[in-house]
Structures are given as structure tokens and as C-alpha cells.
């Protein structure tokens, strides 16, 4: 019975990673929702303090996973995405500087009403996306790549435990 176990652990070891306590795991990312409605810049700061960034939703799969999670929290709050069109109206960029290729705008969004340059999973739009004022209060939705569990040395250094 030993051999199958070795094979399995070798395969999984290629991208074995862990999320910090209290973070949600999906595919190769970890997610964490902040407890308070804050302005966009505060949300950016909130995530960077936790070694993460506001979420980059790159695929329909990632989007529907996150929408499903947000549904379970109810419709009381909207959640920041890590993108803006501040630099050039209508051109959305992730905070990493990368272009945004996948969108899930609600049918009437984005309309840049009174200059909306930030975006959220919107509580009133089935968590489809809407552009909103950056100075409005929404919840941070943070993402990071977790940390590698490693497969060999097991020194345990730098294990992240602090999540604030
Ligand atoms: Ca992502
Ligand atoms: Ca805009
Ligand atoms: Ca809007």
C-alpha cells in the first residue's frame, strides 16, 4: 500500500500550498473577506497588510466560485475588486498593472455615474460587477497565492499565522 501513497504525494507536491487560518481555498488562491465597509484605498491597504491584494478575478470559474461564496454571506454588502479605470476612463487595470480581460458587469454597468473608477461585486445585482465611487464603503475581498507547504525539509520557518 505504500507505493500509491508516494505517487499521490508526488503529484500533489507540484503545487501543494496552504492558506492561512480563516482564509478560503480555491484552486491556487486563498481569499479573505474583511469585516468592515471601507473606502477603496483603505481596502487596498487592508489586504496588503495581510500579504495579499484585492481580488483579481481572471476567469469565469473564479468569478462563479466567489459569487457563490458571497451569496452565502447574504446581500448586505458589496465587495471590492482589485481594479480601477482611474488612469484612463473605461480602461480597467488590475492593481498589478495587468489588463483586465474577463468581466462580469451587470447589464447596466459600468456607467461611470459621477465618475466611478472602482468596482465591486454588487450586493443589489446578484454580485455581478458594478463600477462605484472609490470613496464609498465596501468590504475588502483579498486574494493571495497562499504559501508552499514544501515537500522536503520541513523546517517550518516563516509559517504565516498572523491574519489580524
Ligand atoms: Ca484571482
Ligand atoms: Ca470610471
Ligand atoms: Ca456604476
Question: How does this model look, in words?
Answer:
This protein is α+β, with helices and mostly antiparallel strands and 164 residues long. Helices cover 21% and strands 21% of the residues. The protein has a 4-stranded antiparallel sheet, covered by helices on one side. A 4-stranded antiparallel sheet has the order 6-5-7-8, covered by helices on one side. Strand 2 (24-26) and strand 3 form a beta hairpin. The chain starts with a helix and ends in a 16-residue tail after the last strand. The structure holds calcium ion (3 copies). One calcium ion binds at residues 29, 55-58, 62, 143.
How is the secondary structure organized here?
Elements: H1 2-13, E1 17-18, E2 24-26, E3 29-33, H2 40-48, E4 53-54, H3 60-73, E5 79-84, E6 93-94, E7 118-121, E8 129-132, E9 141-144, E10 147-148
Antiparallel strand pairs: 1-10, 2-3, 3-9, 4-9, 5-6, 5-7, 7-8
This protein binds calcium ion (3 copies).
One calcium ion is lined by residues 109-111, 113, 116, 130-132.
Keywords:
disordered C terminus, single chain, binds calcium ion, globular, disordered N terminus, four-stranded antiparallel sheet
Amino acid at each position: 500500500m505504500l507505493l500509491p501513497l508516494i505517487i499521490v504525494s508526488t503529484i500533489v507536491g507540484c503545487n501543494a500550498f496552504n492558506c492561512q487560518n480563516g482564509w478560503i481555498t480555491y484552486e491556487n488562491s486563498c481569499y479573505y473577506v474583511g469585516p468592515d465597509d471601507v473606502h477603496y484605498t483603505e481596502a487596498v491597504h487592508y489586504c496588503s497588510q495581510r500579504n495579499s491584494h484585492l481580488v483579481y478575478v481572471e476567469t469565469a470559474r473564479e468569478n462563479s466560485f466567489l459569487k457563490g461564496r458571497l451569496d452565502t454571506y447574504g446581500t448586505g454588502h458589496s465587495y471590492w475588486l482589485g481594479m480601477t479605470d482611474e488612469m484612463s476612463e473605461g480602461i480597467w487595470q488590475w492593481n498589478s498593472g495587468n489588463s483586465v480581460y474577463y468581466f462580469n458587469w451587470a447589464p447596466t454597468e459600468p456607467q461611470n455615474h459621477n465618475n466611478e473608477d472602482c468596482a465591486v461585486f454588487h450586493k443589489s445585482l446578484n454580485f455581478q460587477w458594478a463600477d462605484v465611487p472609490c470613496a464609498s464603503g465596501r468590504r475588502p475581498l483579498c486574494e493571495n497565492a497562499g504559501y508552499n507547504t514544501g515537500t522536503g525539509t520541513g523546517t517550518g520557518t516563516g509559517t504565516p499565522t498572523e491574519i489580524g
